[in-house]
């Protein structure tokens, strides 16, 4: 089985440790263990560590603890706890869903460019993948008429990333309902990787609440600021789909880990508190970013609505990969070249790091851009 290199991951693996000012990442400033310990008012932090210390490291709950499944189920209207399966992050969830359902020769349609897993894993399994393109001229959104032209009677799955990495654009309810109508007409599954949720007042609806063959993928990594615990999930209204996943999951992961589950439960149980922290950070940092862009003639931005990734257009006479390499070498500032997402001439700017790092990064980036004046 052959697979293309994962553009963004390969870039980050090579460079993130050498950066001194990292404004490339897609997560919202990660929680520390101490912050997670302090989420519970009723419990002193030492009790939290004692609880972790007493945990027996057997396999634990294979599908995720009942409390985890219940807390995840509460995020949806149509997903019973029984249909929630814990995975190794959203990457594990995407892999599980695609590996379980896509076969050689199948036809699938993937939103493109977006998260590379969503098209290159189906390709590696021998599926024919058509791209449903997003367009910068349309605010980084796709056109439903193009999906209508791509869909076939035998289309097996439509793969979405909502909101979209790296553009931060969001498919709203109306557009999703149109996707569902098309998918239903041919019986296709719709998988939506929903790790980025808007943290302003922009309404968000999960595919799992719109479509009986919908598969929502999510994790604690982005909206909930805990990529290090490696916990994600698949959620679907369909018991039949969950049962297919169960079978494949036994071969690929067994369980998510006792301590990871415990931390995930704590974060989800205090979800509102974590979201309030992150809303504040996203809105503060987004304001800093948009004000900076407004006075920077060599950068353009389609502003994300409370979503923790952004994609800037670089108005410079060199290609984005060279630009990002030289920027890192000369200033220590890390971006992700847009080419790593098949969006040349752009870069992913992760503005949801801590605010002083963002400010320093934008200052240095601004100074660097003056070289091209
Ligand atoms: C769309 C998308 N899905 C999944 C992931 C990875 O999520 P996890 O850390 O939960 O595996 C990322 C990380 O960048 C992402 O952008």
From TrEMBL:
The keyword Cell membrane does not apply. The gene is arcT. Keywords: Aminotransferase, Transferase. The keyword Nucleus does not apply. GO terms for molecular function: pyridoxal phosphate binding; transaminase activity. Its cofactor is pyridoxal 5'-phosphate. Belongs to the class-I pyridoxal-phosphate-dependent aminotransferase family. Its EC number is 2.6.1.-. The lineage of its organism: Bacteria, Bacillati, Bacillota, Bacilli, Lactobacillales. Residues 50-362 form the Aminotransferase class I/classII large domain. PANTHER family: AMINOTRANSFERASE FUNCTION, HYPOTHETICAL (EUROFUNG). SUPFAM superfamilies: PLP-dependent transferases. This is Aminotransferase. It comes from Lactiplantibacillus plantarum (strain ATCC BAA-793 / NCIMB 8826 / WCFS1).
